[in-house]
Amino acid sequence: MSLRGRREVKAAMEVPVIIFDYFGVLAHQYGRPDQEMMDFVRQHLAGRYRLAVLSNMNDGAAEEMLGKSAEIFDSVVISGELGVAKPDPRAFLLTAQRLGEFPSRCLMIDDSELNCIGAKDAGMAAIYFTGVADLERKLKEYGILTP
Question: What is the pLDDT of residue 105?
């Protein structure tokens, strides 16, 4: 195994929790789950990593909107319940705490660069989401997906 391969395996072991934004990542603008993205999560991440949702919604609507896909997520965290919203680093810290994990062992995937900065300020790794193909490439760089 090359040195790069070892780093990728190490990175994957250090990030057992993947947290997704809801609108813009898991769902389209109007709140319907993005089937391509949900299929990607089911195929490549579910059962291998602890998965969660962190959304700046005011109520539990994300969990309802996920429908039967909610079963693949260990937790759905709504900023309205936390009392603080992304990009405030406290939102990310409280989410990690709810998951019983250190922020440094969490990866946030969000379609807002500002939210990614907030996650990094909280000690998480973050990926700026621009689409499924780009996410797949970035997850391979982290060693979370193997080429």
Answer: 96
3-class DSSP assignment, residue 52: strand
In the CATH hierarchy, which fold is given to the domain comprising 3-112+124-141? Rossmann fold (3.40.50)
Locate 14 and state its tokens. 């250090």
Task: Give the angle 6-11-14 at the CA atoms, nearest 5°.
Answer: 130
Tokens of residue 7, six digits: 């780093």
CA 24 to chain CA centroid, Å, is: 12
CA 60 to chain centre: 17
C-alpha distance from residue 89 to each of 4, 50, 78, 119 (Å):
31, 21, 14, 6
pLDDT tens figures, 80-98: 889 999 999 999 999 999 9
How far is Cα 115 from Cα 125, in angstroms, rounded to an integer?
11
**Against a cut of 0.90, is the pTM above it?**
no
Q: Is the Cα dihedral 37, 95, 49, 124 positive or negative?
A: positive
Q: Which residues contact 71 (CB under 8 A, 6 or more apart)?
A: none
CA–CA distance, 53 with 18 (Å, rounded to integer): 9
**Pick the residue with more confidence: 61 or 126?**
126
